[in-house]
Amino acid sequence: MKAIIIIIFTFCLISGQVLCFRVIGCTGGSVMFKCMNSKQKTSDYQYKGKFFCRNRDCTPGISTEIQHRWVNNGRFSLYDDENSRFFRVFIRNLSREDDGEYTCGNKQKWSHDVTLVVNKNSSSCGTSVIQSANTSQTITFQCKYDHGFEKHTKVFYRVNVGPVHVLNSSQSSQSSEEKFILSDSQKDHFNVTLRDISTADGGVYLCGVERYGFSQKNTHITFIKEISLHVYGQRTSVQVEAYISKSVFIKCKFPQKFKGNKKFIQKDSSQKIPVDEQNQWVLHDKVHMFDDSSEGHLNIFISDLTAADEGTYRCGVKITDKHLFTEIKLKINQVDNFHGSSKSSAVVGESVKLICNYPEKHNETKHICKENKKKICQIISSSEQQRFEFSDSAAGVFTVIISNVRLTDAGVYWCGAETRHKHLTSVSLTNKHQLTLTMPPVIRHEGDSAEIKCPYDANQAKEIKRLCKGKCFTKDAQNIIQSDKANVKKYISVKNDTELNLFTVTITDLRAEDAGKYRCAVKDMVYLPIELMIIMKDGITHEVSVGGSVSISCKYIRKQNQSVFCRGDQPNICVRDGVRVSSNNRINGRFSLTDQTSAGVFTVNISNLTEEDCGKYWCGEEHSGSFIFTEVHLRVNRDTISSDRRETEDHEMAKEKCRDSDPESNPFYWTVQLPTNPSDGLLYAAVSFQKHEESLSDTSVGFSKDDIHCDYTSVNYSITAV
Ligand SMILES: *[C@@H]1O[C@H](CO)[C@@H](O)[C@H](O)[C@H]1NC(C)=O
Ligand SMILES: *[C@@H]1O[C@H](CO)[C@@H](O)[C@H](O)[C@H]1NC(C)=O
Ligand SMILES: *[C@@H]1O[C@H](CO)[C@@H](O)[C@H](O)[C@H]1NC(C)=O
Ligand SMILES: *[C@@H]1O[C@H](CO)[C@@H](O)[C@H](O)[C@H]1NC(C)=O
Ligand SMILES: *[C@@H]1O[C@H](CO)[C@@H](O)[C@H](O)[C@H]1NC(C)=O
Ligand SMILES: *[C@@H]1O[C@H](CO)[C@@H](O)[C@H](O)[C@H]1NC(C)=O
Ligand SMILES: *[C@@H]1O[C@H](CO)[C@@H](O)[C@H](O)[C@H]1NC(C)=O
Ligand SMILES: *[C@@H]1O[C@H](CO)[C@@H](O)[C@H](O)[C@H]1NC(C)=O
Ligand SMILES: *[C@@H]1O[C@H](CO)[C@@H](O)[C@H](O)[C@H]1NC(C)=O
Ligand SMILES: *[C@@H]1O[C@H](CO)[C@@H](O)[C@H](O)[C@H]1NC(C)=O
Ligand SMILES: *[C@@H]1O[C@H](CO)[C@@H](O)[C@H](O)[C@H]1NC(C)=O
């Protein structure tokens, strides 16, 4: 041994003062060595500027002035510590091309020749493997070495910015309590066992053997194996239950510090799908993903669930050389006891109740969400929740009341309950509700006037606008007004307000035949219909006695046969909630209805009158959803005198004597929230109807151009078609 060293030493001395040494690695492996001057003066090390280079331009190689930390240049790394008598060089992923002569040294004072030998003959050297482990598991890495290294020290390193010593076989204290244990067969392999793995243990490790250079003092390490350890953070997967043909919303939470990192999802053993964009929905197959950079969440939405969607999903974040993820076991239940999809209609300005049922075990926060244009159901944000009132009505059932319904509320809703886990929350959406809207009706007396304001987008000023009665754009459409044509009726006036982007149609001197549904249309877009209900000028008053009966004769204004008799303050609510008899249901207890078509009337009889019968009633006639009403006042006296009168003076008197029969009802003018800023992509419609005696505040509604789902008639409701 000594002889060999002397020979090398002597050989190296042949080239003058310069020492030389040899470093051996293998293809695919790494090598680490010290560049050291055994004849150095301490002062020589105070010079910065260390290098390990093959050519003058130092490619390949590395040169740096930086001290006290590893500096990298591709596969070459250098660590210069001014207090030591050497500096370290580390070369990773060696190839045959690296084989050759190099120089290492201090730029000012000294240099050595280094022969780098890259051996490709070793069967065990230069291997690279990926191993996976779950947290708290134990894993063993096996490192094979070639014949001849039995007595050499075996080392185990971890790669950080540079190589970091973990442990070696010559370390004396190796109790079984240690996190890392190295056991050397002293024949052909050694094992390194890593216990109680945590996510922090993930990374790249190196197995190596110590080799001698030209002296026992100057050794180098040949790394023979590289191991990439992936540690799966959350070993327990989260079970998420969803239902066939329904949807599921999952929010995966990651530590705030990874907000900017790329997220991914992975189904079963398929490829990881990176979420390339932040803060927008991205679709892959049928999985919608949204990387919320402000929260550091990854939202996942899957709709129209089928059995094929069942499986193990991972939602994760990429962190340098490892991944952090949550495993989701999505279970699709084939049957459910939930209501099928339901359709509800709401009047703008009123409220609407939606009923949701959910599996009782998911009894945490309840949610309702609305589908957007991409049919993604996002959880309604808390700011909007003021108008959404949740209440538990029974086990497994909750209701949501949406108050002050706006045009933008039309659409498809889903509701469901949330389940919460440490790293994710999921909402299994179980009920679908299709919400359509109608405008509140406009109710006027004969002779009054009604003003209909039709909105249009600023860029539609030049487009043809119309107000149609009944349908628009059909052959039988009745255009009340069309902006490119002369007025069709003399009692209609049009005002064109180009500043507010409104055109206003005023119908004066209303007549019974003006009752009906009106629609504003701009170009080919039609807005929600507005129903105009007409109340006949003359009402009917009957004064009757308790115990007696009354026969009320209501005149048909049109030649229609749908008649209704109802009780209530406002005719529109009366026909909805207060119907006593109608042409579809002619006998109802003490109430009966008969048609005298020849006389152009229908008669309603009420027998066995009580004092409670006193109040306001309406005779109504309906044709294709257009109503004409006659107000009926019934006074019930204790005395036995019975009299029938039809004069308007008595009508007013009766009103005073008899209390409101329906104290809970609202006036028929609706206060609908105005859009705060009409220019923010909102089209706004203002509908105001004037009555001569009172001054009324405008009733305005705001709505955006999309999101309106209407299922009326055959006209084109595609409000997005701008
Ligand atoms: C190692 O280098 C070879 C080329 O010599 C390259 O193909 C390979 O990707 C490298 N491996 C790593 C882990 O960098
Ligand atoms: C590799 O080994 C073969 C025989 O096993 C030998 O002939 C060859 O010279 C060796 N090459 C190197 C570069 O050591
Ligand atoms: C980690 O745990 C999961 C679920 O318990 C299991 O399927 C997987 O095989 C484990 N991985 C390893 C490397 O043990
Ligand atoms: C082995 O470990 C001991 C103790 O940490 C250390 O003193 C020694 O230099 C190491 N040897 C090698 C070759 O890394
Ligand atoms: C190393 O691990 C392998 C497989 O786990 C085992 O067969 C072998 O005996 C171990 N060797 C040592 C020296 O512990
Ligand atoms: C949810 O249900 C579980 C068991 O059915 C019960 O222990 C828990 O108190 C319930 N939580 C709520 C918020 O109702
Ligand atoms: C409203 O005024 C604008 C600008 O003067 C004009 O282009 C448009 O045709 C008018 N619309 C109606 C309905 O009169
Ligand atoms: C209704 O009352 C009138 C007179 O009070 C009576 O002639 C008629 O037969 C009654 N009709 C019914 C259906 O009760
Ligand atoms: C309305 O009139 C039509 C024909 O004129 C008739 O077929 C229908 O039965 C009538 N409906 C009612 C409720 O009287
Ligand atoms: C009216 O009252 C009488 C006696 O109280 C009763 O016999 C009769 O059935 C009642 N008629 C109706 C339609 O309720
Ligand atoms: C509805 O409007 C869209 C867009 O303008 C148009 O493509 C479609 O043909 C229209 N449909 C009908 C029934 O008018």
TrEMBL record:
Query: Which keywords, in A-to-Z order, does the entry hold?
Result: Membrane, Signal, Transmembrane
Identify the SUPFAM superfamilies for this entry.
Immunoglobulin
Which subcellular locations apply to this protein? Membrane
- List every stretch annotated Disordered: 643-664
What CDD domains does the database record attribute to this sequence? IgV_pIgR_like (cd05716)
- Domain Ig-like spans what residues? 51-104
Q: Which InterPro entries match?
A: CD300_family_receptors, Ig-like_dom, Ig-like_dom_sf, Ig-like_fold, Ig_sub, Ig_V-set
Q: Span of the secretion signal? A: 1-20
Q: Which Pfam families match?
A: V-set
* Superkingdom of source: Eukaryota
The biased composition feature labelled Basic and acidic residues covers 643-662
Write the protein's name: Ig-like domain-containing protein
Organism of derivation? Cirrhinus molitorella (mud carp)
